[in-house]
């Protein structure tokens, strides 16, 4: 078993005024993985990243990075951590290449023009190296932020909402860049509220809400554990109640008794089997339905249910 690259235990953060942004967060990140931290705005994602990157002073708990207490060995740990913050921040009148060089120097590394060129080329920024940042599009500015974060060759990279405000084509391009970074051995923690981003990129997913981690697991395990099947039977004739012969199934009526809705299963195929059983029983009992729509829940459905408190025993 590899030593985790990041181990957070009981992390707390209460701001002046009493707002508790983090409430006893435990989180372990494996070396070499892409981990997606999902949560609505104000859930504590950025505060958690800030605590690891030294931008936020926790009020409780411990953070170990690369096997060392981050508070005691702050400088050594921070040199191995890259951060692409949500907000764009640089001198808009400076040239792209100078900003990236400056970031490398900030971490005490010697100049390395070959490495700077490699980083800029990997992000399709080499042709823009002498452009002033203010001349760039929003998506290209975000790429410059990533280049700055990569300039000192971090082993652990935080991307805080990296594709916010970026069009779909550029978003997919950036996903490819993230995959290439992982191939080079960089561990990536990605915060996002784009569920498709987590589905596309991440090995594991965590859900945070109101400063608490609600769930951490592999994507496939989440789908197996919390996935549901939903089926809508359109009845030929409305009924007042769920027929007694079907009462053992998770069913309810909608549209004044015209629609019989099934919500159940557990991600293992149980839901599909039960829907097939229901159809057979209804045919046998003469309960006529004129249409049947089925769908399996997505990661987004599970995320919404978690945040809204509909999945109490998820963790």
UniProtKB/TrEMBL annotation:
Give the matching PANTHER family: ABC TRANSPORTER ATP-BINDING PROTEIN
Q: Name one GO molecular function term.
A: ATP hydrolysis activity
- What's this protein's name? Multidrug ABC transporter ATP-binding protein
Q: Known Pfam families for this protein?
A: ABC_tran (PF00005)
Domain ABC transporter residues, every copy? 6-235
What InterPro entries would the database entry show? Answer: AAA+_ATPase, ABC_transporter-like_ATP-bd, ABC_transporter-like_CS, ABC_transporter_ATP-binding, P-loop_NTPase
Alphabetically sorted, this entry's keywords are: ATP-binding, Nucleotide-binding, Transport
Q: Which domain of life is it from?
A: Bacteria
């Amino acid at each position: 078993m590899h030593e985790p690259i990041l181990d957070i235990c009981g992390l707390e953060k209460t701001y002046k005024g009493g707002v508790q942004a983090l409430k006893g967060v435990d989180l372990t990140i494996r070396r070499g993985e892409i981990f997606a931290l999902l949560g609505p705005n104000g859930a504590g994602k950025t505060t958690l990243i800030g605590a690891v990157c030294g931008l936020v002073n926790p009020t409780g708990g411990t953070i170990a990075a690369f096997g060392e207490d981050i508070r005691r060995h702050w400088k050594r740990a921070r040199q191995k951590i890259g951060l692409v913050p949500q907000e764009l921040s640089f001198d808009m009148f400076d040239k792209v290449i100078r900003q990236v060089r400056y970031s490398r120097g900030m971490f005490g590394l010697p100049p390395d023009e070959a490495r700077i060129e490699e980083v800029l080329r990997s992000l399709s920024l080499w042709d823009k190296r002498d452009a002033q940042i203010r001349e760039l599009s929003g998506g290209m500015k975000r790429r410059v932020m990533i280049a700055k974060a990569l300039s000192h060759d971090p082993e652990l990279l935080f991307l805080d909402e990296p594709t916010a405000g970026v069009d779909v084509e550029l978003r997919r391009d950036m996903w490819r860049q993230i995959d290439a970074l992982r191939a080079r051995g960089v561990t990536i923690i990605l915060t996002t509220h784009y569920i498709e981003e987590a589905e596309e990129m991440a090995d594991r997913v965590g859900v945070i809400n109101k400063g608490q981690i609600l769930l951490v697991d592999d994507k496939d395990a989440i789908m197996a554990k919390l996935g549901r099947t939903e089926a809508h039977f359109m009845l030929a004739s409305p009924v007042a109640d769920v027929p007694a012969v079907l009462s053992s199934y998770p069913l309810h009526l909608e549209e004044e008794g015209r629609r019989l809705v099934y919500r159940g299963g557990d991600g293992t195929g149980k839901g599909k089997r039960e829907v097939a059983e229901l159809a057979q029983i209804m045919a046998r009992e003469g309960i006529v339905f004129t249409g049947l729509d089925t769908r399996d829940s997505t990661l987004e459905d599970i995320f919404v249910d978690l945040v809204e408190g509909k999945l109490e025993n998820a963790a």
